[in-house]
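2024-03-11 09:14:02 DEBUG pipeline.ingest accepted 1 chain
2024-03-11 09:14:02 DEBUG pipeline.ingest length=363
2024-03-11 09:14:03 DEBUG pipeline.predict start
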Amino acid sequence: MPLKQWCCRLSVLLLCALFLSQAHVLAAPLQKVATAWMGEQETFPIWYAKEQGWDREAGLDITMLYFNSGMDAVNTLPAGSWVFAGVGAVPALLGALRYDMSVISMCNDEAQANAVLVRPDSPIARVKGYNSDCPNLLGSPKTVKGITILTTTISSSHYALSTWLAALGLTEKDVTIKNMEQASALAAFEYGIGDAVVLWAPLTYVGQNRGWLVASTPHMTGHPLPLLLCASKRFAEKHPDITARFIQVYQRGVEYMKNTPMDKLVTDYLRFYSNWAGAEYTRKLAERDLKTHNIYTLSDLERLFDTSNGPSQVQQWFTHLAEFLASSGRISHQELEKLHGSGYVTSKYLKLAAQTPQPSAAQ
């Protein structure tokens, strides 16, 4: 056979092999990934990414499970209900302590979105600046001690409550705390039950629109309040590539939020709340919710999780939170030591996500 003819046939065979290989890759089954979320801002990026099919582009088939609180979601991890979740700082910390959960990234900072609210005619509202370090705080030991407070316990709102009490020199033993789901707490307070209510967004703004006053937020007391992306440690360590791809899909949704004009973003955001959370809000409230939450690019997250010069910013936040919970009796000092040595806040999946090229969210 002439050399030229042989080379042509070899080229054809190689091309066929290449096409068959690509077809096999394209036909590879998607990796099913179960995730857990609440009806809040941090869920929008993954909801939108799922709607656009960006998970499938990354070789994933993400399913989204709805929970009323982060702790509700965390408590289902041992049953294998999910492998990734968006939860508040307190559930994330307790999940790491109890269920070997890892913190792999951050969704937002909601320190301004969790608020202690009181009625305008409350004695609490008549006292401002008791603590000179927190001049905008409402209340004093005399007006707060003995009151009944409605909130969702073991949650970000619970932490917001604790920081308020601490700023006033009080502890949870000085008040009565009624555990309720957020919507129930809002409704009960509207009907005159309780002396204060602690809500997270967007119900925070619903309460303010009803005339209730903000007595405190973690931001007002100088505390950050991150909302975290967490993972089953076992799953993440077994599947680092899937974990990195999941972070990329989530961050693609964040990129869309950062690069989309507010008017269009609000329209999508209202559709998210209606379709996912079953709630209807005004455009004004939706825009307020979006502006209240700080969100982060992948470069921002690498910086916040960077340990090259000692504990990362996120690790420092969690150390403070753990010590706060220990001082208030929510966790023991033995549990505190266990947390300090567990390495549950990790940057390795963020680094892996940053090293791999990813599609743009531009439309």
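2024-03-11 09:14:41 DEBUG pipeline.report The two ends are 53 Å apart (CA to CA).
2024-03-11 09:14:41 DEBUG pipeline.predict end
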